[in-house]
Amino acid sequence: MSKNTYKPGQTSPRSGQYEVVGPRGGSQDREVTVTRGEPFPPTQKPGQGYQLVDPTKHK
Fold first, then answer.
1. What is the pLDDT of residue 3?
2. Pick from 30, 37, 28: which is nearest to 56 by CA?
3. How far lies 18's CA from each of 4, 57, in Å?
4. Exposure of 59 by Cβ count < 10 A (0-12 exposed, 13-18 middle, 19+ buried)?
5. Contact assessment for residue 45 and residue 19, using Cβ atoms and an 8 Å cutoff
6. Which distant-in-sequence residues (6+ apart) come within 8 Å of 37 by Cβ?
7. How far apart are CA 25 and CA 39, in angstroms?
8. Helix ranges, the chain (H)
9. pLDDT, tens digit (0-9, with 9 covering 90-100), for 32-41
10. How confident is the model over 4-50, as pLDDT tens digits?
């Protein structure tokens, strides 16, 4: 996994939409919304992780 891929249970560094990615970085066609400071939810299969695709914009 790349350094911008987060594992389930890790604390989210930024609020936004995160894409579920496989062990080699391929998209799994699933996204989750995570708030900064909250842990990432469990994935459906071992080895999957999360990558930020749409950060939340605050004013």
1. 72
2. 37
3. 11, 14
4. exposed
5. no
6. 11, 12
7. 20
8. none
9. 999 999 999 9
10. 899 999 999 999 999 999 998 888 899 999 999 999 999 999 999 99
